[in-house]
Design brief:
Elements (H helix, E strand, L loop, with lengths): L4 E13 L11 E13 L3 E5 L6 H8 L7 E6 L2 E2 L5 H9 L1 E4 L3 H4 L6 H11 L5 H14 L16 H13 L5 E5 L7 H18 L2 E6 L2 H7 L2 E6 L2 E7 H6 L4 H8 L40 H5 L5 E4 L2 E3 L12
Parallel strand pairs: 3-8, 3-9, 6-7, 7-8
Antiparallel strand pairs: 1-2, 1-4, 4-5, 9-10, 10-12, 11-12
Bound molecules: adenosine-5'-diphosphate and magnesium ion.
Length: 329
């Protein structure tokens, strides 16, 4: 782990026990996250990308302390969130905030904008009254919301405005890390772009780190410094955003990219788009987990497990067939 990491995951595993069936003797698990090692540097934006069900939200929930890891470690600003004394963990955890996908349901309908945004600032021991109000006004201004909205409630706002309120709330406790779980997936495309621009500006102005979770490669492309591609609970490829998206090395990343519809039909790739479905994390395939859907699989892929290996500076891939150095590098 680099000394500058605000978040470091080491071999993180989160297994969910399934309800025991009447005829099943042994306990079964959903291997939602199965050995994730990754870090986020200060002021860095890391995108965790992959299809629905690959374990992205479970990683986020573990980082937020909402789901207990089965094994592995989570370090926040160098604090081991399983081992450190309670007070130290509490302090490190307080600097991590989240913005969820659905703006309307993540904001309490009965609270005013003022109270929603003031709440985290209050629990961080900030003074009440006028100074709290001016802090809230300043935050609304930062996220581009008209300050005359102060006493309105969430239902009076559009989806994009609600997401701005959620961002203001996240900023209220001066976080060093904000987890964004599909922050723009519920918004219209034009609103999406404005929210992403706002988030990028916040990173630049405040040096906040983001763990950006998205199934949308275009969102990762426009915001992230690095991407980690997840498949069935594991990272299969990671590296600088431009490198991974312009020259993906893992067949899964290639397929994900090919499935993004390009606005320009002459630019659309003829590569095979993903067939079949994501297998269940209860009985993940043997060998490489992607092999049943991989157009390039060979014998080794179905029986020999494969872990991430570094192929060039800052780039890693978990594929038996990936070249030692990236093509064209
Ligand atoms: N509380 C839970 N109990 C059992 N299985 C779960 C639970 N939460 C998530 N899962 C399973 O873990 C896998 C990963 O889910 P999730 O992290 O939500 O994926 P993503 O956010 O990438 O769509 C899915 O198969 C999901 O059904
Ligand atoms: Mg999710």
């Amino acid at each position: 782990m680099s000394r500058d990491s605000v978040l470091a995951l080491q071999d993180l595993c989160v297994y969910f026990p399934l309800k025991r069936g009447a005829f099943r003797r042994s306990r079964q698990f959903a291997y939602a996250v199965d050995g994730v090692t990754e870090s986020v540097g200060r002021g860095e934006i890391l995108a965790l990308v992959g299809e629905s069900g690959c374990g992205k939200t479970t990683v986020a929930r573990a980082v937020l302390g909402l789901t207990k890891p089965t094994s592995g470690s989570i370090m926040l600003q160098g604090v081991d969130m399983a081992q450190a004394p309670h007070k130290v963990r509490q302090e490190a955890g307080a600097g991590v905030q989240v913005v969820f996908q659905d703006p309307a349901s993540s904001l309490s309908p009965r609270m005013t904008v003022h109270d929603i945004v003031a709440e985290p600032a209050r629990t961080r021991g900030r003074p009440d009254g006028e100074s709290l109000k001016s802090k809230v006004l300043e935050l609304l201004d930062t996220v581009g919301l008209d300050t005359q909205h102060l006493w309105r409630r969430p239902h009076e706002f559009s989806g994009g405005q609600c997401q701005r309120i959620a961002i203001a709330r996240a900023l209220a406790s001066d976080p060093y890390l904000v987890v964004l779980d599909e922050p723009t997936s519920a918004l219209d495309v034009s609103v999406q772009a404005r929210i992403l621009t706002l988030l990028s500006a916040l990173r630049d102005a405040r040096g906040i780190s983001f763990l950006l979770i998205t199934h949308d490669l275009a969102v990762a492309q426009c915001m992230a410094d690095r991407v980690a591609v997840m498949y069935l609970g594991r990272i299969v490829e990671k590296g600088p955003t431009h490198a991974v998206l312009s020259n993906p090395l893992h067949p899964y990343s290639v397929a994900l990219l090919a499935s993004v519809p390009s606005p320009d039909p002459t630019q659309r790739s003829g590569a095979a788009v993903l067939g079949g479905e994501v297998p269940s994390p209860v009985n993940p395939p043997t060998g490489c987990r992607f092999h049943p859907r991989c157009p390039q699989r060979t014998d080794i892929c179905s029986h020999t497990d494969v872990r991430l290996r570094e192929v060039s500076d800052g780039r890693s891939v978990a594929c038996h067939l990936a070249p030692e150095t990236p093509v064209g590098a």
